[in-house]
Design brief:
Layout: H1 2-18, H2 22-33, H3 36-58, H4 61-67, H5 69-96, H6 104-108, H7 117-126, H8 130-142, H9 151-174, H10 177-185, H11 187-211
Helix pairs in contact: 1-9, 2-3, 2-7, 2-9, 2-11, 3-7, 3-8, 3-9, 4-5, 4-8, 5-7, 5-11
Length: about 220
């Protein structure tokens, strides 16, 4: 039934969202280092990225990136480069330390438009073209023939709201007083760990692209 299709796709998306990855890393870091609002705004960026990939998949972009290897590699490389850039900024922040009395977030986050939490959440999500292939595959496998057309736009709305709700929950949880206090006590080491992990993920993605562009 249409309802069963919507529920199945929503559950599959939720299972993927709750698995820790770059989206969770960025939202969690901004929530603990800057503010609850920054984390929620980043969650909104991740949700828009999710909506973008689902919409592009409906338009056939997922099949395109699956078949056109250079396009897939280009988008993948751009996402990896962004993670490396963001992680490097965090490592530099940890190396130089924070002036006494300066708010954690203003120093830790990259400055300018690229440092806005919404942009960070959006670009982190858009840096993973596998999302387009994931959704295209789901639409092919999980949507039975004869399904009403309205089901797919409904799925797009449901998973977008669901993505925002989940990552906003992550932001609310990691911006609590106890978590922020623990962060302030170990801020430099957390910056090093978070930045190092982002750089490592980016380098790993680039290495996979170099070894096998079609399967990275």
């Amino acid at each position: 039934t249409p309802l069963a299709t919507i529920v199945a796709l929503a559950l599959l998306h939720l299972m993927g969202a709750v698995t820790p990855g770059p989206n969770t890393l960025v939202v969690g870091y901004l929530s603990a280092s800057r503010s609850r609002r920054a984390g929620v705004v980043a969650a909104a960026g991740v949700a828009l990225g999710t909506a973008s990939w689902v919409t592009l998949s409906l338009a056939g972009f997922g099949l395109l990136v699956a078949e056109v290897g250079w396009l897939y590699g280009l988008v993948r490389a751009a996402g990896a480069a962004y993670l490396i850039w963001l992680g490097t900024r965090l490592l530099l922040s940890a190396r130089h330390g924070r002036p006494a009395g300066q708010p954690v977030g203003r120093h830790a986050a990259p400055r300018g438009r690229s440092g806005h939490p919404f942009v960070q959440g959006l670009l982190t999500n858009l840096g993973n073209p596998k999302s387009a292939i994931f959704w295209t595959s789901l639409f092919v496998v999980a949507v039975p023939p004869g399904t009403p057309f309205w089901v797919l736009p409904t799925v797009a709305v449901v998973v977008t709201v669901q993505a925002f709700a989940w990552y906003a929950l992550v932001a609310l949880t990691l911006s609590t007083g106890a978590v922020r206090l623990a962060y302030l006590r170990a801020v430099r080491w957390i910056d090093v760990a978070t930045g190092g992990l982002m750089v490592a993920i980016g380098l790993w993605l680039l290495a996979r692209l170099a070894l096998d562009p079609r399967r990275a």
